Amino acid sequence: GPPLRTLASEKGLRFGSAMSSGQLDDAKYREIMLFECGTMVAENEHKWYTIFPDPDTVNFAPADRLATFAGENGLTMRGHTLLWHREMWSPEWVNALEFSSASETADFVEQKISLIVDRYAPAIYAWDVVNEAIDDETGEFRQTSLSAKMGEQLIDHAFHVAKAHAPDATLTYNDFMSWESTSAAHRTGVLRFLERLKARGVPIDGLGLQSHSNYEMPNEFTRARQRDWVAFCDEVVGMGLDIYITEFDVNDTRLKPDIAYRDALIASYTRDYFDLMLAYPQLKEVLVWGMVDDQNWLQTFLPRTDDVEKRPTVYDSDYKAKSMRRALADAF
Ligand code: XIL
Questions:
Q1: Measuring from atom 10 of ligand 1, which residue has the nearest CA?
Q2: Which has the closest alpha carbon to 119: 55, 48, 64?
């Protein structure tokens, strides 16, 4: 059938995937990217831990390679992320910093963010300015070495710096959320956080819903979750914000290993989720977190306990389209 990007664009949506610089050397992966995707996002190459691995190094080489590939092949590029506000994913040397004042912190953050944005503006049309600033268990704003003196003003500052350096880019807050595994505290925390940003006049255009999904059989439990999720999305768009699905994949950890069984459930889950989300005219983009099963991050980050390979993406490890792809195509 036609490429996913073509089907998505008929609905006014961009479709794309994450890609790593290592995958540039995989001819089959490149071919799938170029066939299916209109846009791409760097899996790790724009993150501080790649660009600023230590205080004295600036490493743009992997991100430059991806930018060249995108530019030469007519792919647009989403940027991820200017501030991963979570010590678990922030360079150790940044976590260890002790700032003496808010303004000293602000200068440091401005220097780092503007270095990244300036290098890739205007080619990058959207930035996940801030990633995962709200604790997914408590709904509280996370504390890091960078928020110690600035508090939540740190977030405002990151958005203002991004706006100043990429005035035409869409600016997003991105968080680890999906319909079936997001807690009430997390949803509420994100809503109040977004309201505070809006009230302070922060230049934010929308919310990125990562949508790393953890599937179980449909039952009353997931139907209740679905109602909560719709109520959450309604409130987000009610604030005048757009929404983006930024990192869709399906963690099949809880499903028994039989491949046909897993794929059928994953496809039906995918269809249900996208039917729900495509009802929002405010949904502007759909990105999946990788195109090929054995290259997806969940294989190593959250392996199945039975050592069976997960099937989280649209193509299997032999680069063959799966029923999940059909589900996406049908939903578009
Ligand atoms: C993941 C990458 O896929 C991994 O390669 C890396 O080790 C950790 O980060 N939420 C995000 C993404 O916003 O940046 C994460 O990507 C997946 C979860």
A1: 176
A2: 64
Cis peptide before 122 (omega within 30 of 0): yes
Residue nearest to atom 5 of ligand 1 (CA): 297
**Which CATH number covers residue 188?**
3.20.20.80
Q: Domain of residue 138: give its range.
A: 4-331
Report the predicted TM-score, pTM, of the whole model to 2 decimal places. 0.97
Instruction: From 38, 45, 43, 28, select the one nearest 70 (Cα to Cα).
Output: 38
The Cα-based distances of 86 to 48, 196, 319 in angstroms read 12, 20, 34
In this structure, are residues 68 and 115 in contact, taking their beta carbons and an 8 Å threshold? no
Single-letter amino acid, residue 45: E
Tell me the pLDDT tens digit for each residue of 120-158: 999 999 999 999 999 999 999 999 999 999 999 999 999
Q: How far is the CA of 271 from the centre of ligand 1 (A)?
A: 24
| Residue 301 alpha carbon, nearest atom of ligand 1 | 7
